[in-house]
Amino acid sequence: MTLLARMRDGVAVSVLRQSPLVGWLARVVPMVLAGSLMAMVVAAPLDLHQQLLFSAVCLAATLVLRRKAGRLAILAMVVLSVIASTRYMYWRLTSSLGFEGWVDMMFGYGLVLAEFYALLVLLLGYLQTSWPLERKPAALPQDNRTWPSVDVFIPTYNESLDIVKLTAFAAQAIDWPKDKLNVYVLDDGRREVFRSFCEDAGIGYIVRPHNNHAKAGNLNWALKHTNGEFVAIFDADHVPTRSFLQVGMGWFIKDPKLAMLQTPHFFFSPDPFEKNLNTFRVVPGENELFYGLVQDGNDLWNATFFCGSCAILRRGPLEEVGGVAVETVTEDAHTALKLNRLGYNTAYIAIPQAAGLATESLSGHIGQRIRWARGMAQIFRTDNPLLGKGLGFGQRLCYLNAMLHFFYGLPRLVFLTAPLAYLFFGAQVFQASALMILAYAMPHIFQASVTNSTMQGRFRHSFWNEVYESVLAWYIMRPVLLALVNPKLGTFNVTAKGGVIDKSYFDWAMARPYIVVLGLNLLGVVVGLGKMVFDDSASNATLAINLCWTLYNIIMSAAAVAVAAEARQIRGEPRVFAQLPAMLGLANGKTIVCRTSDFSQSGVGISLPAEVEVPQGTQLQVSLFRDENESVFPATVVFSRGQSLGLSFDDLSLQQQSELVRLTFSRADMWAAGWGQGVVDTPLAALREVSLVGLRGIVLLSKATAAELLLRSRFLSFSKKIILRQT
Description:
With 727 residues, the protein is an alpha+beta fold.
């Protein structure tokens, strides 16, 4: 019933007016017939030529459907992909596991378990994302006197005041009746400078005598000391737009059972992948698939996850589940699970209404992902969504997939090294001919790639997921496995934001696992080519398959190495590129109408009209506009080149700082315009992108190795000179 209600704008047909028996039959009989037909197709015995013909027809149909790209066409592609993948797994289990030696058995069963995991995640992913709900904002009552009261919580621990100040000013600027909006900074760092700022800015300031349960405990303490009907939560670096509450609150009034509404986490600075690989706003970031598609798909099944920030929660249900969950280090997702178990609804609106800072360094990014992975494993172990009461079938599977996703560490490492079992040890991980392997495996791979590219193309480019997983696999594997054994292991770690990287460097510590994998695969190519030339007993077809697989693994592991080359980041305050109307007022009374090119908390870039110059060092007034209202800020030109100026603001008052945030970071249209509007994925182009990144990784590793060897050589030479002088 919940699913039918959530598909009321789609193609679902209600069976409420029919008798319960007729309604039950109307649901079950088609499912049984479809399942029986699917089983017959999956298990149908075909010889090599028949399998190749069947696969070719299915792939041709998929390519035709890809051109349609409508929702029903995508569903048909999913069905064809599921057929290809399950046929492969059925063949794999029934026709390719006749292992004879213990070496074949060890490597063979290890690979098939990794493949089974990948298939399960693929099928659950299709369930999640095949029909995103695409919820739109619901209208609020015209009389804003009936709107509910909202407490805005900004938890902080070790973030700088400049970061928190930006978020706090933006929260104050939210368009909501001022007598029903209260902003609180929750300072677990208990810093006097924060208290003074909040007092001067008219912002609530809450501290507690301890830091028990980290962020979750901080939020729960604030819940006990406030009384708004709703709570909006923003991480210290997530800056809300003025329209945040007006976009999200309408659904709470429309649905009394709605307990939580999440909006996307959007970032105005690049994460380490985007920064180090120079792909910011060119290739969709790691998180965009989740917020662009997965959460929208979860919403259909009433299984939207709370993500800890950029969300609204109804106070009553939140208090009913005991506040924000403290049993695991992913307190946000666990809280949503608890709310769903009690029968409350959760929702998602895929319109960015806040923006924040991404992690700057690869080590910080990995640390954050380790916490997420450990927390999901803790939930899987202690509050498994497949067990217990209160969840619907779709909810259980959505939560299950979210948790299983973080178990990819070991399977990814298996895939990155699997062909080496044959190249190094002669292990036959497939007890089948090379042609049969290709006939079943390639349709599975191609169908899944084309289908996922069609579904995810705006938010994830092909092959990049393998890069992300290759980087993280080694690091999340151990915490996840340990959390399964002992869920109490591990603590909450705060992700540092707003840092500066003074100079570029190669992070040898983080890159070591990828370098080992890359080296093994390069050695595998040498061994394989040697066998192809000198070993007459080796099967060239089998060698070719394993060499191609190894070459692919070289690309992925080399791309992972490239991420470890940390690019320089000298700005502590990332600039946002945006063209906004502006005007410069000079000391002689002359005014210049112009536009901004970028902005930050401390300055603004200006694009001047042709043939207009303003020299460096000039003190002036810069005007920014909101509708017909003008705000003026004192500034100094610190950079002047042609028609490009860089201005630094001069000692802005708190009122001016707040007004600047209103006109820049918290503009209602600032983040939504570019959401999902990048280059749409095409698999071949994406493979070329990743291959070039892999080549770059090998070049960077070579240069870093040469520099390291040179440094050590100089150190040894210097040490020898010192020793000789002493003797």
